[in-house]
Amino acid sequence: GNLLPINQNNHTVVGRRLETSTPASSLLSYPYHHRCHQHSLLYLLHPPPHLQTAMSILEYNGAAIIAMSGKDCVGIASDNRMGISYQTVSMDFKKIFQMNEKLFVGLAGLASDVQTLDQLLRFRMNLYELREEREMTPKVFTNLLSNMLYEKRFGPYFAEPVVAGLDENDKPYLATMDLIGATSSTEDFVVAGTCAGNLYGMCETLYKKDMEQEELFETLAQALLASVDRDALSGWGGVVHIITKEGIISRELKGRQD
Predict the structure, then answer these.
(1) What are phi and psi of 197, to 5 degrees?
(2) How open is the CA angle 99-126-147, to the nearest 5 degrees?
(3) Confidence bin at 51 (pLDDT 50/70/90)
(4) Percent of the chain residues topping a pLDDT of 70
(5) Which residues pair with 175 in a beta bridge?
(6) pLDDT score of 212 more than 50
(7) How much is the average pLDDT of 133-139?
(8) φ/ψ of residue 22, rounded to 5
């Protein structure tokens, strides 16, 4: 007998076992779709090549981060979920970190590397402030982060950063980069995470130039919630930070809990 459930004229399936008049060695020469079908345990454990999808390590824990500029203000938002693939582990995982009074960084990717990068960035920023006796601007911070990632390019941190802040003239600054530090700066919005495609679509629909603080918050909130509702790896509410020259406004979002 053989456990492979083959549906051919000279084979008979009895329960979960297969009685066959064909030698086992010749079964391996059958095309894959002849040897397995959709009701077989083997099919589920080892799907045929055309159905196999490799999950990126950046998608393992799930994330959704979005940053957007307004009129003399900038906002950054993220979801709260941290999971192991499709299994939710935490509903309050922090992905956005405040670097100083006018600078935030969001880290989308592997949860352990997110926390490692946060600690390393704080160390490097404190060292900079001790040496230079001034706070780091968003542009300098972006260059620092880019260099840190590129240093580890042969064994990279699995995280995609989003930088949002106000520069020395209190003008919005937005940048993002990949896991080896290739930087892209923009004037409207940047996104990262497992539902980046959804976020791009929502941002291109809702974004307007020179939005005030409240309108910027509403736009960020609606774009984030609408996007994570259509992504199984992110969600469970979120948080939005609005950075202005007067201070920081932080609000939590309640989203679908599934």
Answers:
(1) -60, -45
(2) 75
(3) low
(4) 79
(5) 163, 185
(6) yes
(7) 93
(8) -95, 130
Q: Which residues contact 134 (CB under 8 A, 6 or more apart)?
A: none
User: Is 0.85 topped by the overall pTM?
Assistant: no
Query: Can you spell out the DSSP letters for the chain?
Result: -BS----STTEEEETTEEEESS-HHHHTTS-HHHH--TT-HHHHHS--GGG--PPPGGGSS--EEEEEE-SSEEEEEEE--EEETTEEEES----EEEEETTEEEEEEE-HHHHHHHHHHHHHHHHHHHHHHSSPPPHHHHHHHHHHHHHHTTTS---EEEEEEEE-TTS-EEEEEE-TT--EEEESSEEEEETTHHHHHHHHHHH--TT--HHHHHHHHHHHHHHHHTT-TTS-S-EEEEEEESS-EEEEEE-----
* Amino acid 43: pLDDT: 54
pLDDT tens by residue, 21-50: 444 444 444 444 444 444 555 555 556 666
Closest CA to 164 of 228, 248, 246: 248
Q: Residue 164 and residue 141: Cα distance in Å, rounded?
A: 10
**Mean pLDDT confidence for 121-128:** 95
Lowest mean pLDDT among 42-46, 54-58, 59-63, 70-74: 42-46
Token pair in block for residue 68: 């957007």
Residue 46: the pLDDT is: 59
Nearest-5° Cα angle at 232, 230 to 236? 90
CA nearest neighbour of 24 among 48, 1, 5, 47: 1
Q: Which of 249, 257, 190 is nearest to 223 (CA)?
A: 190
132 CB-near residues (< 8 Å, 6+ apart): none
Q: What is the CA radius of gyration of the chain?
A: 24
